[in-house]
Amino acid sequence: MSYIDIYKMANVFMHSPTLESVLMVEKAAKEYSGELGKYQLWKRLPRKMMYQTFQAVLSYLLESNKIIIDREGKVVWIWDPEGVRRILQKGLITR
Predict the structure, then answer these.
(1) CA 91 vs CA 27, 38, 80, 81, 82: distances in Å
(2) Domain count across the chain
(3) CATH number, domain at 68?
């Protein structure tokens, strides 16, 4: 059995995070932006969540450019649609 076969089998049992889970992690990432690493942020969530699910949510937030992980490994919230809207309205940048 190859590594790829094992990976595919593992993904069969992995479920996708719910919208509620994503929103909970987003809220915590905003609240603790720049203060906590991934593990510490996971421990501060208001409800328990499997770490694998938490990592899936973080992957989504990274890929959608809502968070970054800084050099110290801390989760930083960077998504600011209102700030972007204000900058666009002032004509400081173009799309």
Answers:
(1) 30, 36, 17, 15, 14
(2) 1
(3) 1.10.10
Say yes or no to pLDDT of 8 above 70.
Answer: no
Tokens of 91: 């004509």
User: pLDDT band at residue 14, thresholds of 50, 70 and 90?
Assistant: low
CA 95/CA 27 separation, integer angstroms: 28
Model pTM? 0.75
pLDDT of the residue at 2: 64
Number of Cβ within 10 Å of residue 24's Cβ equals 18
Residue 5 lies in a domain: no
- 62 belongs to a structural domain: yes
Is residue 1 one of the residues assigned to a domain? Answer: no
